[in-house]
Specification:
Elements (H helix, E strand, L loop, with lengths): L2 E9 L5 E8 L5 E5 L5 E7 L5 E3 L7 H6 L7 E2 L5 E2 L3 E4 L2 E4 L8 E2 L12 E6 L3 E10 L10 E10 L3 E10 L3 E2 L3 E2 L17 E4 L1 E5 L12 E2 L11 E2 L9 H6 L3 E6 L6 E7 L5 E7 L3 E5 L23 E5 L14 E2 L5 E11 L1
Antiparallel strand pairs: 1-2, 2-3, 3-4, 4-5, 6-16, 7-10, 8-9, 11-12, 12-13, 13-14, 14-27, 15-26, 17-20, 17-22, 18-19, 18-21, 21-24, 22-23, 23-27, 24-25
């Protein structure tokens, strides 16, 4: 039977206690989730021999999440990824957002969903266990219009799936784009870099960026470029190729235009040859941001006091496209009163 255990993880600098919930299934998989940021602090997955390892980067202490985390394991909102110059116009009104990534707004700003305390309600079913997280984002929070009611549901199934369901409503028109920001290393969070992982992305095109990683508006075929992951390819195979897009980002930090039809479709497959662990990513979203851990440099000491070196983990962030509020040609991201934002992503694990 699946199970859920609640415990205390630590406290914020202001003294507010932070809870941790441990979900486990019947097949040796478990996930630990904080009510701070909805952070997946640990994700233990069996290898081909049945030995479980923690396959996401993170910290053992609350202070590190509060002071120095590069979004490890967090819920991202209101708007995942970048908005150019922290500015967009909606219904004739221009809104100014905080800039926290060079000239741009990134992942909802300094006070985005990754830094708030979520209300948590556990649930238990015969073949699954989960958490319902809720948060009310007030009108004007981080510059966004409207009061947004957000709900995120984590579900761990006995089929070794971690499903994430997002839902939101608003009382004023506002852009909405949630994602999940775990850094994965299927060999184990402390096992070195991810360059030998095999990655497949179900996309024929991607959105190139300028030097500040804002999309140019073009949708470019991946054929003949280092961005072609239509067939399983080592993450490190072309990451050092002489390509302007790779140079801008220091590796991969780009949005792929998925083939899916907005029903739950496969977006990516990640495999680690030595352990045999495989992760399939399914989503209703039109885009996938593949980030290859370019800014990890060994200065962060993570779980077990392990130093996370360059490319120690990678992110596969299901999403709408970056800077969509400023690109009407991209899939729409505006949520209006009376509408319900819904999105679903499933990380499904098996072995080879």
């Amino acid at each position: 039977m699946p199970d859920c255990i609640r415990g205390r993880f630590g406290a914020l600098s202001c003294g507010t206690p932070i809870d941790v919930y441990t979900l486990s299934n019947a097949h040796g998989m478990s996930v630990r989730v904080l009510n701070y940021g909805g952070i997946v602090q640990s994700l233990r997955v069996p290898d081909r021999s049945g030995r479980a390892a923690d396959v996401v980067l993170g910290f053992d202490d609350m202070a590190s999440y509060e002071e120095r985390s590069p979004y490890f394991g967090a819920i991202i909102g209101r708007y995942a990824n970048r908005i150019a110059c922290g500015r967009f116009t909606l219904d004739g009104v221009t809104y100014e957002l905080p800039t926290n990534n060079g000239p741009n707004h990134l992942h909802g700003g300094h006070g985005g969903f990754h830094r708030v305390i979520w209300q948590v309600a556990p649930f238990l079913r015969t073949d699954r266990v989960g958490l319902t997280l809720t948060y009310t984002s007030k009108d004007g929070e981080q510059g966004y219009p409207g009061t947004l009611g957000a709900q995120v549901v984590y579900t761990l199934t006995d089929a070794n799936e971690l499903a994430i369901d997002y839902e939101a409503t608003t009382d004023r028109a506002t852009p909405v784009n949630f994602t999940h920001h775990s850094y994965f290393n299927l060999a184990g969070h402390d096992a070195g870099n991810v360059l030998a992982h095999d990655l497949t992305i179900d996309a024929d095109a991607y959105t190139p960026t300028d030097a500040t990683l804002i999309p140019t508006g073009a949708i470019t075929p991946v054929a003949g470029t280092p961005f072609d992951f239509r067939h399983a390819t080592r993450v490190g195979a072309r990451i050092g190729a002489p390509d302007e897009q790779l140079a801008n980002a220091g590796g991969y930090d780009h949005n792929w235009v998925l083939r899916g039809d907005h029903s739950l479709s496969r977006a990516a497959r990640l495999a680690e040859p030595k352990s045999g662990r495989v992760m399939h990513v399914y989503t209703t979203e039109p885009g996938l941001q593949f980030y290859s851990g370019n800014f990890l440099d060994g200065s962060l000491r993570g779980k077990g006091d392990h130093a996370y070196q360059h490319r120690a983990g990678l992110c596969l962030e299901t999403q709408h496209f970056p800077d969509s509020p400023n690109h009407p040609e991209f899939p729409a991201v505006v949520l209006r009163p009376g509408e319900v934002y819904r999105s679903r992503t499933v990380y499904a694990f098996d072995v080879t």
